[in-house]
Amino acid sequence: RDEGWGVMRIRAEAKGLLAPLAEHLAxxxxxxxxxVFDGGSPSPRLLSFSLDDxxxxxxxxxxxxxxxxxxxxxxxxxxxxxxLRHVAALVGR
Length: 93
Known about the structure:
The structure is a single chain. The chain is mainly α. 42% of the residues lie in helices and 4% in strands. The protein has three helices and two strands. A two-stranded antiparallel sheet has the order 1-2.
């Protein structure tokens, strides 16, 4: 909000950032998130992104490759809890 973004923009940014984490959580055999989640290889689309872009991350994140490099423990409870807490807040629960 300090950047002058409206609620819809903030929600779109949060969804874009949480999507890869939620996908990994739902699709991993452990049903969990690793301690370290590095975000994968840099993408040219992401490298050229600016927070001043009026469209935000919304159109950028879905097109990014989903290659992630997990590390540390393969299951971290607070990582899972935070993703679930924010996803629940975004869907209004």
